[in-house]
Design goal:
- By secondary structure, this protein is α/β, with parallel strands linked by helices.
- Among the domains are: about 150 residues, Rossmann fold, CATH 3.40.50; about 120 residues, ANL, C-terminal domain (GMP Synthetase, Chain A, domain 3).
- About 30% of the residues lie in helices and about 20% in strands.
- It has 20 helices and 29 strands.
- The strands form eight sheets. Strands 5-4-17-16-18-19-20 form a seven-stranded mixed beta sheet, sandwiched between helices. A seven-stranded mixed beta sheet has the order 12-11-8-6-7-14-15, with helices on both faces.
- A hairpin with a 6-residue loop joins strand 4 and strand 5.
- The longest helix has 18 residues.
- The two termini are about 25 Å apart.
- About 55% of the residues are buried.
- Bound molecules: adenosine-5'-monophosphate-propyl ester.
- The site of adenosine-5'-monophosphate-propyl ester (PRX) has 21 residues, from helix 11, strand 20, strand 23 and strand 24.
């Protein structure tokens, strides 16, 4: 977004004057009470960490802030699988449901209690151990939304083996890039995953990735799709052969005593270069941060049914389908498939069936439901819902209001939660029962979090002003670095403004001190709540043998937030064609994954460049947005951009 367009958008947002004060009945029962914001930062985290987590050995100091590295709960020992599972069974909650799992095929359901989960985790951990996975072994995980995915994460946590879960929609190249970066020795995957009524061959992708990832010496394959798959004797093992015959007795596999700062997992995310960064999350801080935020922000009570409708392949799923809810002994819903299979009311059937009381999803999904129309939600009893949440991108006030009216029956608070892969936990958010809600604003920093908006020179802007969002103090679940790349860590987050965490988002703070998030200020796009870097897509395009050059930018899209537009010059002065466009889009899907497919490709004999040969992306963004062109005087050849404009009468492509 150009500055001018950004300013226009924010002015429109700030003109949003609808207010939703807390309802007294909600406030009276809310987990967060008014004094929460007055609590001292250290007292807050110390009290919460002791109340919410079971420690094998207490920590000696709360945190250490050796800029830009924070450590939390130093000297403490604990195990995440014990905290998420065993202790609840020990406390008499064995019969409580941990997951209502709903497969994509209709009537394919599993109810997994905490006692069941304990047995399943112990079995998997025993099986993994026999295969050679031990404390410190690096493991890749490439699965769909099946119960064995959280089971795998918890089993690895029990053993103390750090992992990276790679979203099932990523390509073999993306998967192998991550396996290589983390030097994974094992891969846990499945034969096929359900996707809109069809089986998607995950194992084929995994096979191709393993060809390119020589450190992987064994794979465990869950049977889910029943599809025919390739098999490499000696390397590949069926999940049922590895796991089924193992003991489910917790004493057969006692949880490892992990250090507070031991690596828990890596989550790869796009930055401003072609190579995704492995964001490091450690044990205690992540567990404390996710469980505390889950408790207060979602106001979770023992009888709630919580549904975070994200995919576990992203940070939202790690924090709020697996670790936060399980640590709080919550009953969650987990759904395997797409919202419109077999029909567009599938989600509302699920809410009705399990009496979901708290629903957490992304604005892009809300807008999809809006497009389909309110009749699908209206055809089900959604009266169990008492709180709604949103995450992943700025939510436009219309979507916020629609969500509250048509899903929340006009009764429920909506919490717009701002955070990132790097932050591990929600950082800016309303607290239901306390905060006066403003559609489109994520409102206030979570207690103990200090956020600010800086201008270009690092000065805090006065109320109403816009600038760059920064976080001034450390928080428990913050990233501990970029795996294998300390320089990039320093450069990306700590060099723009010394001493504070540079978020990469634009923001404004209004007169009441509420934050309005404005999207990325770097070369990162946000498509349907997924982060994709322009340069990643450009590299995928120039990887095609016929592409000479490519420039990529995001344009606003009413459904997906942003859509990807690519400007491509073919080799040998060749002209583009609709077939070539399809071929290139498929190529990007093959290299990165379908989520990175450009919505449009504009073929052009030349890209607009400065005299020193730098591509002027700003002008391409103007073209993509169909705006008047900005300053073209520094262009080597000003006619180029006019020609591109003519060619760019873009017709968006679906999917
Ligand atoms: O630009 C912000 C946007 O998503 C980015 C983080 O993306 P990712 O690491 O993939 O994590 C997404 C889920 C936590 C942020 O830099 N973003 C996330 N939540 C919001 C948001 N933008 C505005 N409002 C939000 N509530």
């Amino acid at each position: 977004m150009t500055e001018e367009a950004g300013a226009r958008a924010i002015d429109a947002l700030l003109a949003e004057e609808r207010r939703y004060p807390p309802q007294p009945e909600f406030t009276a029962r809310a987990n967060a009470q008014a004094d929460i914001y007055d609590r001292n930062f250290e007292e807050f985290w110390d009290t919460e960490a002791k109340a919410r987590v079971s420690w094998l050995a207490p920590y000696d100091s709360l945190y250490e802030w050796d800029l830009p590295y924070a450590k939390w709960f130093l000297g403490g020992k604990l195990n995440i699988s014990y905290n998420c599972v065993d202790r609840h069974v020990e406390n008499g909650l064995g019969d409580k449901v941990a997951y209502y799992w709903e497969g994509e095929p209709v009537d394919d359901r599993r109810v997994i209690t905490y006692a069941d989960l304990q047995g399943l985790v112990v079995k998997a951990a025993n099986g993994f151990r026999k295969l050679g996975i031990e404390r410190g072994t690096h493991v890749g995980v490439y699965m769909g939304m099946v119960p064995e995915l959280p089971i795998t994460m918890l089993a690895l946590a029990r053993i103390g083996a750090p992992f990276t879960v790679v979203f099932g929609g990523f390509s073999p190249d993306s998967l192998s890039g991550r396996l290589n970066d983390m030097q994974c020795e094992y891969l846990i995957t499945q034969d096929g995953a359900w996707r809109r009524g069809r089986i998607f061959d995950l194992k084929k992708n995994a096979d191709e990735a393993m060809e390119m990832a020589p450190t992987v010496k064994a794979a465990v394959v869950l049977r889910r799709g029943g599809n025919e798959i390739g098999w490499q004797e000696g390397r590949d093992h069926w999940w049922h052969d590895v796991v089924e015959h193992e003991s489910d007795d917790p004493s057969s596999c006692p949880p490892e005593a992990m250090d507070a700062e031991d690596l828990f997992f890596l989550m790869y995310t796009s930055g401003t270069t072609a190579r995704p960064k492995g964001i490091m999350h450690t044990t205690a801080g992540y567990l404390v941060g996710t469980s505390v935020t889950h408790h207060y922000i979602f106001d979770v009570k023992p009888d709630d049914v919580f549904w975070c409708a994200a995919d576990i392949g992203w940070i939202t799923g790690h924090s709020y389908i697996v670790v936060g809810p399980l640590a709080n002994a919550t009953t969650s819903v987990m759904y395997e498939g797409l919202p419109d299979f077999p029909d567009r009311d599938r989600w509302w059937q699920i809410v009705e069936r399990y009496k979901v009381s708290i629903l957490y999803t992304a604005p892009t999904t809300i807008r999809t439901h809006m497009k389909w129309g309110p009749e699908y939600a209206a055809s089900h009893d959604l009266s169990s819902l008492r709180l709604l949440g949103s995450v992943g991108e700025p939510i436009n006030p219309e979507a916020w209001i629609w969500y509250r009216e048509h899903v929340g029956g006009g009764r429920t608070p909506v919490v717009d939660t701002w955070w990132q892969t790097e932050t591990g936990m929600i950082l800016i958010t309303p607290l239901p029962g306390l905060t006066t809600l403003k559609p489109g604003s994520a409102t206030k920093p979570f207690p103990g979090v200090e956020a600010a908006v800086y201008d270009d020179h690092g000065n805090e802007v006065p109320p109403g002003g816009g600038g760059y969002l920064v976080i001034k103090t450390p928080w428990p679940a913050m990233l501990r670095g970029i795996y294998g790349d300390p320089e990039r860590y320093q450069q990306t987050y700590w060099s723009r403004f010394p001493g504070v965490y540079f978020v990469g988002d634009g923001a404004r703070k209004d007169e009441d001190g509420d934050f309005w998030l404005m999207g990325r200020v770097d070369d990162v796009m946000n498509v349907s709540g997924h982060r994709i870097s322009t340069i990643e897509v450009e590299s995928a395009l120039v990887d095609h043998p016929e592409v000479a050059e490519a420039a990529v930018c995001g344009r606003n899209d009413p459904m997906t937030g942003q859509a990807i537009v690519a400007f491509v010059t073919l080799k040998g002065g060749k002209e583009g064609s609709p077939e070539k466009m399809t071929e290139l889009r498929d190529h990007v899907a093959k290299v990165i994954g379908p989520i990175a497919k450009p919505a449009n490709i504009v073929f052009t004999p030349e890209l607009p460049k400065t005299r020193s040969g730098k591509i002027m992306r700003r002008l391409l963004r103007d073209v993509a947005e169909n705006r008047a062109l900005g300053d073209t005087t520094t262009l080597a050849d000003a006619s180029v951009v006019e020609e591109i404009k003519e060619r760019a009468t873009v017709t968006p492509t679906e999917d």
